Structure formats: structure tokens, C-alpha cells
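User: Could you check the structure of this?
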Amino acid sequence: MRGILETGFARVDGSLALLVQRSDQTDRALIQHGDDLKSLEKRVDALEADSKATATHGPRLAAVEKVAWTAIGVGLLAVPAGGWLVSILVK
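Assistant: Sure, the predicted C-alpha cells are below.
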């Protein structure tokens, strides 16, 4: 009877040791996942800040395009007018 009880206790002891080991592994994995999550949150915050900073690019780009097209239009009008003026002055 004593041998049977010792064998049973040894099995229970082994099973408990395995459970403790797995619990420790799970705790370490949870800590690592928490650290990974914090790192990802920092990266997302940085991306969101960059996104907010670039949100004003649209209106600014539209203003630059307007100035550029206006300058091109004035240039296109000035070339024929300049040529016309030169032709009048040369005659």
C-alpha cells in the first residue's frame, strides 16, 4: 500500500511541477506580449502624429498649384505680347 501511495504522490508531484512550469512560461509570454503591445502602441501614436502633420499638405499643395498655374498662364500670355511688342518696335 505504501508503494502505491508513493507512486501516486510522485505522479501528482510531477504533474504539479509541469503545471508550475507551464504557468511560468505563460506569465513570461504575457509579459512579452505586453511589452510588444506597448511598442506597437508607441509606433501607432507616432504614425498618427505624422498623419496629422501631413493632413495640411492638401490645402497647401492646392495653393502652390494655383500659383504655379497662374505663373504659367501669365508666362504664356507674356511671350506673344512680348513678341508683338518687339515687332512693333523693330518696324
